[in-house]
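Box 4.2: Ligand-aware structure prediction
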Amino acid sequence: MQLATHRGRVFAGQPNGSGLHQVRGLPPAPRPAIGAHLPRSPESPPALANLIPLADIDPALIEALLDAAFGPDRFARTAYKVRAGTEWLPALSFAALDADDMLAGTIQCWPVALTDQTGRKHPMIMVGPVAVLPDLQGTGFGKALVTASLTAIDPRAPLPQVMIGDAEYYGRFFGFSAAHTSGWKLPGPWDPARLLCRAANPAVLPQEGMLGPWRG
Ligand SMILES: CC(C)(COP(=O)(O)OP(=O)(O)OC[C@H]1O[C@@H](n2cnc3c(N)ncnc32)[C@H](O)[C@@H]1OP(=O)(O)O)[C@@H](O)C(=O)NCCC(=O)NCCS
């Protein structure tokens, strides 16, 4: 599959928008699906940033962006083991395009579960990776992407969200915290300060358990 680039950045489609939706046999979707032409302010995404369903993006472009943000050794990360064998959730996963329809960033969310000491599985949503192209970092794409995913979670059944990331970022802007995860285990090495959770009611979170894929 050919990867087109433009000005050294990953190109997500033709400038006129054609080609963005020729993925996985999906019919053309109206775009932008959400978040059109958001106003520029310190607390909001960049002007003209479009957020669209990640399913509308060529999978090869997603992988190229993840390589650019995390490096090619990213597959060894513990987060990949936590969600091994699962597929990202289309309804909660988004792509950010810049004003030139370039792919600027992505977010993926995954079905995982914390298995407690009795063997009971507590389903959760694993948020991330959140990835913004290095030359576009710090311009609001990350906040826009995380906001989109968290907002898309069904408020009638808001599963707890878990992630491995910087508390300075995900705590400050989104309320993630390591306060309730100190008794949780992962299938690989991890920094306890970076195992973060966000829940409508933290009291329901198991104090101990092993995090892994949720396959229903
Ligand atoms: C982390 C990341 C997703 C943030 O997205 P972004 O678009 O660069 O950040 P935003 O523009 O939304 O937010 C910028 C603000 O967050 C702060 N910030 C960004 N990354 C931060 C981090 N890792 N820790 C603490 N603060 C951070 C910036 O200082 C800035 O603060 P300010 O508003 O006070 O100036 C992005 O930098 C990235 O893709 N990094 C590489 C991959 C990665 O580490 N992903 C996270 C793990 S899943």
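In the box above, the bound molecule is coenzyme A. The chain has four helices and ten strands.
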